[in-house]
Design a protein that fits this description.
single chain; alpha/beta; FAD/NAD(P)-binding domain; five-stranded parallel β-sheet; 6 helices; about 20% helix; binds flavin-adenine dinucleotide
Amino acid sequence: MKYVVLGSSAAGINGARELRRIAPDCEIVLISKDKNIYSRCILHQYLGGQRDLEKLSFVEHDFERLYDVDWKKGRSCVGLKPKEQVVLLEDGEMVGYDKLLIATGSHTFIPPVKNLKEAKNVVGFRNVEDIDLLKEVAKTSRNILVMGAGLVGLDCASGFLELGVKVTLVEMAGWLLSKQLDERAAKTYQEAFSKHGVKQHYGVGVEEVSLDKNQNITEAILTDGTKLPCDFVVVTAGVRSNVDFLEGTGIETSCFGLVYDETGKTSDENILQEMYQEPAPFGR
Ligand SMILES: Cc1cc2nc3c(=O)[nH]c(=O)nc-3n(C[C@H](O)[C@H](O)[C@H](O)COP(=O)(O)OP(=O)(O)OC[C@H]3O[C@@H](n4cnc5c(N)ncnc54)[C@H](O)[C@@H]3O)c2cc1C
């Protein structure tokens, strides 16, 4: 049996590990856009310099050998032929499978703010490449705006603080971490960020960004009319599922991503979103 796993982050890696456990003799091919295996949860420490790439990893150093996985790293899947049971990679290679596990996760959502999509000096806070760019940005930018004060936005602000860079947070909700905290609890964190020089704007969104002739943002205009000087924007305002490569395949998706049942099966019986694990019997 040949399994192909798409994605080498938390879901894909643990899917591959689980496959090796339940099917010791199967062939496993892991395909990922990512060239490295790393935890996104600690990317702020990569920005802040407390961890290097090696220390972001959550796998054994000999993961591929240990789990006998053929990892095609830095390779994107751009299509799928469910009837032929093959995935198409961007360089034209086709990889056949008996069963396919899709664990392609998500990407940064860029909100429909005027001029934002066209701007050059804007990035998300999700991939190691984003953080590599931000490390460079931190050396020269003086007015970095972080759009969104949820968990990821705060990670971003904290990472920058480690570098001595004080960002500006703009959040549409009335306070930071509005999904996790009430206003009173949030105040404690807001004050702590203020003490460290982080400027914060709550209850307002970014309505528009102004661009110079090189398509670089120079100013952000907020929904209350406030104009903020700005030479870089980090967008931390949510994500969208990576399911573009499924377009036209007939595999069911919704606005949230791939549709699957409680056992992880998608609308195609050979394609799984997540491995289904039998509940462990008592005593194990
Ligand atoms: C800054 C930050 C901090 C976070 N902190 C926490 C935390 O403290 N606690 C917590 O529980 N969660 C946290 N999260 C969320 C957590 O990181 C995600 O839930 C987790 O990464 C999801 O894993 P995943 O494997 O489903 O997808 P992803 O991590 O999105 O990985 C998707 C994988 O698929 C690959 N891929 C995508 N498209 C293709 C394609 N077309 N072809 C080939 N490969 C493809 C990518 O290269 C990647 O390897 C944080 C996230 C971020 C960004």
